Amino acid sequence: MMNPDSGGKPPVGGASAEGRPGGKSRRRRRAKRGGKPPAATAPVRGLDAAISTDAGRPGSSEQSAPRKRKRRRARAGQAATRAGHAANGEANQAEAAAQAAASSVQNGAAEQVAPAKGPGRRRGRGKKSREGRSLQGRPLTAGQGGAKPSGASKAGSRHGHGTAATAKAGHARHGHAHGERSKLPAVPDVLLETRRRPHADDLYAALDLGTNNCRLLIAQPTRPGQFRVVDAFSRIVRLGEGLAATGRLSDDAMDRAVEALKVCASKLASRQIRKMRLIATEACRAAANGEVFLERVTRETGLTLEIIDRETEARLAVSGCSSLVGREARSVVLFDIGGGSSEIAVLRIQENRSSRLANHITHWTSLPVGVVTLSERHGGRDVTPAIFSAMVDEVEAMLAGFDCPAFGSADEQDADPEFYLIGTSGTVTTLAGVHLDLPRYDRRKVDGLWLSDAEVSEMQAKLLSWDFQGRASNPCIGPDRADLVLAGCAILEAIRRRWPARRMRVADRGLREGLLTDMMADDGVWRRTRGRRHAEQSARGAAEMHR
C-alpha cells in the first residue's frame, strides 16, 4: 500500500487526495480516533461548507474516502426527497385539476380555470385547501391532469375508494399504453333507461268502487305479465248499504265513499300517472241515483268514474287472476264474490293458450247477490244453521238458471284431475287466514294458497259455530266483516255444490289487478321490457368481450 505521506497517486477507488501536500500527524490521528476534533479545524456549517473546508485541509486522504461516500449518499437522498416532493406536488396538483375540471363539467360552468404558476416558483407540498386549491398556487387546468398520481391516489383508484377525478387521471395516464383498449363501449340509451329510477310515465292506476269497498292500486310494469305495486289504498265504505230495500244510495253511504275517493284523488295527484282507469260496479249500476252520485264525485274530487257492465267485470276478474292459473290447467271455474253481485267464469284452456286468459272464457254469469245484499235480506249478525241453509238455497236457485253444461262432476274430474276452483274475494281470503291461524292478516301467505275441499268445509263449519263477537275478535275478520263473512260462505257453498272440485286456490287480487294488466298489455309495455332486457344483455356481453 502506498505511503500517504509520499504524495504519490492514491489507490484506485479511494478518495482523491492528489495535489494535497502532507498528511495528518500521528498525534492528530490518535486524537481523531479518540473522538477529539483537531484544534485547528473550524466548525462545519452545512454540507457545502464541509466540502470546501475539507478540500483545502492538508493531510485528509484517509478520512476523505468514507466522508465523501457519506456526502454522496446524503446528496442522493436529498435529491430523491426533493424529487419525491416534486412528484407528489405534481400529482396532487393534477388531482386538483381533474377535480376542478370534473366539477366545472358537472355544474355546467364554462369559466376558464387559471393556469398554474411557472416552474421557477417554489412548489407546494401537495397539500390542498377545501376549495381544491394547492396551498402554493392556483387551481390547475384540466390539461395538466395527466401527471402521475401519488401512491395513495393510485391505491384508492385500484380499490374503488378514490374519487372520480382520480379515476379519470388514471385513465389518462394509461391511455398511451393501452390505446383504444382503454376506451369502454358506450352504454346504450335503452340500458340507461333500465338503470334509472322508475319514471312517472311508467305508472298505471286502477280504482274499483264496489258495493262494500273502495280500492286503489298504483303500479309499475316489471317482468312480462307482472308489475310492482307503488301505492295502494283500501277502505270499507258500505256504499250499497240499504240499496236492496230502497233501490237508492243513502246519503251516509255516499258521504263515506266521497271521503275515501278524496284520499284516492290526493294519491293520484301526487304522481304523474301514464294511464288510469276508475270504475264503479254493482252499487252504482243498480242504484237509481247512481249517475247523480258519480257527478257529485267528479265535482268534489275531480275523479271521473265509469260504470262497467257485468261481463266486463267478469273478464277483469279473470285477467287479475291469470298468473294463478297454471300451465297444466285445462278447466277452471273462477268466481268473484262481491258486495252486491257475484261473477262466475268458466274457462276451458286448450293447447294454444292465449296471453290473455279472458279469451278462454266459455261461459260466465253474474248473480245479482253479494255479501252485503244477502246479509241484509237474511241477517248477518246472528246466523243460525237454518238461516245459513236458507241463504245457500237462494243462491243455488240463481245458479240453476245459469245455462252451462254439466261441468266439474266426478266423472269429469277423473278425466281432468287438474280441474280446480279459483276464488277471489274477501270471503275466500278470510277463510284462508282463519285456516292458517294468522295473528294478523298477511297477503303474502294467503295469495295463491291451496285449500282442499275438506279444509274449506271445516273452515265454514268453524265460522258458523262462532257468534258475532267471536267472529269480530278474529284478526282476519274484524268487526267490519263479522256480519258479512257467513253470507259470503253461503255463496261459496252454492258454487261448490254446482262445481265440485278437489281443491280451491285463494286469490287476494281482483278487478284492480285486471285493470292494470289490461292497460299494460294494451300499451305493450312488456314488449318494451323484453327489448330493454335484450339490449342490456347485449351491452353487457359487448363489455365483457371488450375487456
TrEMBL record:
Biased composition (Basic residues): 23-35, 66-75, 119-130
Region span, Disordered: 1-187
Segments of skewed composition (Low complexity): 76-111
Gene3D superfamilies associated with the record: 3.30.420.40, Exopolyphosphatase. Domain 2
CDD domains reported in the protein's UniProt record: ASKHA_NBD_AaPPX-GppA_MtPPX2-like
Domain Ppx/GppA phosphatase N-terminal intervals: 224-521
Pfam families: Ppx-GppA
Listed name of the protein: Ppx/GppA phosphatase family protein
Species of provenance: Rhizobium helianthi
Lineage: Bacteria, Pseudomonadati, Pseudomonadota, Alphaproteobacteria, Hyphomicrobiales
